[in-house]
Amino acid sequence: MTNKLDGKVAIITGASSGIGEATAIALANEGATVVLAARRGDRLNALAEKIATTGGKALPIITDVTDEAQVQNLVHKTKTEFGRIDILVNNAGIAAIGAIDGGNTADWKDMINLNLLGLLYVTHAVLPILKAQGAGHIVNISSVAGRTARPGIGVYNATKWGVNGFSEALRQEVCQDHIRVTIIEPGLVNTEINDRISDPVAKQNMEERRRSLTPLESEDIAAAIAYAVTQPPRVNVNEILIRPTLQY
Ligand code: NDP
User: Fold this and answer.
1) Cα–Cα 20 to 30 A to 153, which of 3, 78, 98, 226?
2) For 64-106, what is each residue's pLDDT tens digit?
3) C-beta of 91 in contact with ligand 1 (< 6 A)
4) Which has the closest alpha carbon to 245: 204, 188, 160, 207?
5) Which CATH homologous superfamily contains domain 9-242?
6) Which pLDDT value is given to residue 9?
7) Which atom of ligand 1 is nearest to the CA of 113?
8) Where are the domains of the chain?
């Protein structure tokens, strides 16, 4: 039986947990060779082994996407090993949320460096390869917070709003090269994302919010990504917004 992504090569950033991990499994199940990028090598190795046991192919490459040299290494190694790159899922991100007044500016820098600059660096590094191939697909993980501003998440809002603006401009720049750009906007998903919140009030508020509804699971978002990247070349799924049923 053939799978929809047989012969395709996909890089997934932030593949060591949550949405990235589930996406790597989903795309490997569709036949893609998946390149797993994040900082925690032990997690990436365990995931690569898991994918291999189900007949999939995965290559872990330890990468901090906020470091442009490491990003160049990720893309160069992928191209050298597999000869092509078809799909990039820019998923690595943090939500170091908290009020703007009195906010932790180190957290702000971390969010901007990762959620925005990291995503830009990986996009910048893969684009010449996609253009030379005459096809490719970039999936950027934004958030409901890229469309709806709320008190207590202002800087996270700014990064995800930035992801949306950048993605739409990119889509228009590269559509004539047959390169597709998709924005995925999840609501609350049950992952490790809260671990990175340094503000105790913001953390408690977020945990209470999560308890007040049944959050999405990472697999729900992975299924949306798999849907977008398995459409025929004429179809560009521009944007998918997915909230838990009980989320306002
Ligand atoms: P997780 O915390 O489970 O995953 C975050 C991933 O990002 C990890 O794999 C982590 O790996 C990676 N990462 C962090 N810093 C870096 C770095 N410098 N370089 C490379 N990778 C890095 O969270 P989620 O799965 O929830 O988050 C994934 C994406 O989904 C994010 O962009 C987030 O904003 C978005 N999102 C999440 C929502 C949610 O409710 N969970 C809602 C809406 C959007 P490592 O630490 O090993 O580097």
Assistant:
1) 226
2) 999 999 999 999 999 999 999 999 999 999 999 999 999 999 9
3) yes
4) 188
5) NAD(P)-binding Rossmann-like Domain (3.40.50.720)
6) 98
7) 18
8) 9-242
